[in-house]
Amino acid sequence: MEAFVKVNPHIMPQIVHVGSEQTPVVIIDDFVEDTTKIKEYACTKAEFSVVENSYYPGVRAQLPKQYVIDMLQPIYKQLYRLYQLPKHLRLRPQDIFFSLVATPQNELHPLQSIPHFDTPRPFYFALIHYLDDNEHGGTALFKHKETGFERISPERVEDYLSSASEEQQQHAASGYPRIDSPHYQAIHHIDYKPNRIVIYPGNILHSGVINPEKDVSHDPISGRLTANIFFEFN
């Protein structure tokens, strides 16, 4: 099948070790040669809707499988060394979405107002591809102040959820997550830049840094359009 995107042969990956746990995060600018085709697909063929049983504050649509292959094929082998992955594990894409932040902040569920983790599983990762050309909020990675946790491993889930639940009962958060709040501290902030990709473990606490005035929109032409590829080595 014809490629949706071609990776820029001159990419220069930046590896940032964040927080006290020194988690590696991959940032690559100008990742593909041209985003026109994938953006046209999002605007003309993608069917956006609210995903059931999800706390994502907006709408999503399925990504073309060929685009996912185009994005992962050139880079996934380098992740084995960076994240010390067992060599017998194989890459398996999980959820693959276009995403648009579209929920007004006064309609958010309290759990959408705090940073989250995708899963405690250690070899599960998220890749974000920023697609829109306009100025938008980026992505932040967090530490939970009470526990000191940055990554929520299986051994930490119970303690973290107990502490976070108690905090929410005392004073439920509202609005989109902020860089600094009473219970969470940002350990790294990644700016939104068109055609930038970011890769990080799914068990690190994270959130979009959402500007309610600029970022909340159902329109893939002008909204905070991202491609989100969740994948696991198992």
Description:
With 234 residues, this protein is an alpha+beta fold. The protein has one domain (14-233): Sandwich (Jelly Rolls). The protein has 4 helices and 10 strands. A 7-stranded antiparallel beta sheet has the order 1-2-8-5-10-4-3, with no helix packed on it. A hairpin with a 4-residue loop joins strand 1 (14-18) and strand 2 (23-28). The protein starts with 13 loop residues before the first strand and ends with a strand. The relative contact order is 0.25. The mean pLDDT is 96.
Write the layout of secondary structure elements.
Layout: E1 14-18, E2 23-28, H1 36-44, E3 58-62, H2 65-72, H3 76-82, E4 91-101, E5 124-130, E6 139-144, H4 157-170, E7 184-190, E8 197-201, E9 206-208, E10 226-233
Antiparallel strand pairs: 1-2, 2-8, 3-4, 4-10, 5-8, 5-10, 6-7, 6-9
Organism: Thalassotalea agarivorans
Protein name: Phytanoyl-CoA dioxygenase (PhyH)
InterPro entries: DUF6445
